[in-house]
Design goal:
The chain is of the alpha+beta class. It contains 6 helices and 11 strands. Strand 4 and strand 5 form a beta hairpin.
């Protein structure tokens, strides 16, 4: 019996299933290596099928065994194998995207924040093209990598793409903007509308403004042109007591006493 099989198909899942059928094993008993990420191409040109190498997890030279029964090997959870594959798929796809953009002499630092989240930090020269206007290109690349990483199903895997310390710098700039706009609204007592932002950046603005007394913020419009409106809120005071009118009784008439006014 073959111990490994290389298969191609239109999707990663389909290629893996074909290999498992030919090896006559279940998906839980194999380790999957992604050799090629599928690409749809443009107008039928440049289409690439998914290509995987499926290897049987063996115990001895004749029969595959369940990893849980092999005391000489640590227990391997299929979800962990899935997570490792997702990380590699996302990283390989990002390399291919950047290569197609004509970038050279760059590195990708991999920082696994948890078992379901990774941060890819790009380092190199002339990476302004990757960021784009207000990070639009960077956000688009990130969204594509998230989609590709989760094509095989399973638990959702989050991919963050950063260039140097751009994300941190941008977040601080948005917090500063929220504070500055709030001060202007408080001073002029007039609402201010900001330029359209993505949901992630709008959240940073909202979180900043909710901690400032006297102003509030709401989002208006529809994606991708949804924007924030910052407006003043009247402060209510509960300390002021109403002045009470005092009356005096004289000659069977009630008379208003001005000294208590």
């Amino acid at each position: 019996m073959k111990r490994e099989m290389i298969k191609t198909a239109s999707t990663l899942d389909e290629a893996i299933e074909l290999a498992c059928l030919e090896l006559n094993v279940s998906r839980d008993d194999v380790c999957v290596e992604v050799l090629e990420v599928p690409k749809k191409g443009f107008l039928g040109l440049g289409k690439v099928e998914a290509k995987v190498k499926v290897t049987i997890i063996e115990g001895d030279s004749d029969n595959p065994v369940d990893i849980k029964d092999n005391i000489n090997k640590p227990e391997v959870d299929k979800n962990n194998i899935n997570i490792i594959n997702k990380l590699e798929v996302a990283k390989d796809y990002l390399y291919s995207l950047l290569d197609n953009m004509g970038l050279e002499n760059f590195d990708i630092d991999v920082n696994e924040k948890s078992d379901k989240k990774v941060v890819f930090t790009l380092r190199g020269d002339n990476l302004g093209l990757v960021i784009g206007k207000r990070g639009d290109t960077l956000n688009a690349l990130q969204q594509l990598c998230v989609v590709v990483a989760n094509m095989s199903g399973g638990d959702y895997y989050n991919v963050i793409i950063d260039v140097g310390d751009y994300r941190e710098t941008r977040e601080q700039a948005l917090r500063d903007l929220g504070t500055k706009i709030s001060k202007t609204v408080l001073k002029n007592k007039k609402k201010i509308s900001l330029e359209p932002m993505n949901a992630y950046e709008r959240k940073i603005i909202h979180d900043t403004i909710q901690n400032i007394n006297g102003v509030k913020s709401i989002s208006k419009g529809t994606e991708p042109h949804r924007y924030i409106v910052v407006f003043p809120v009247e402060k209510r005071s509960f300390n002021k007591s109403k002045k009470k009118k005092r009356y005096s009784f004289k000659n069977n008439n009630f008379r208003y006493n001005k000294k208590y006014k």
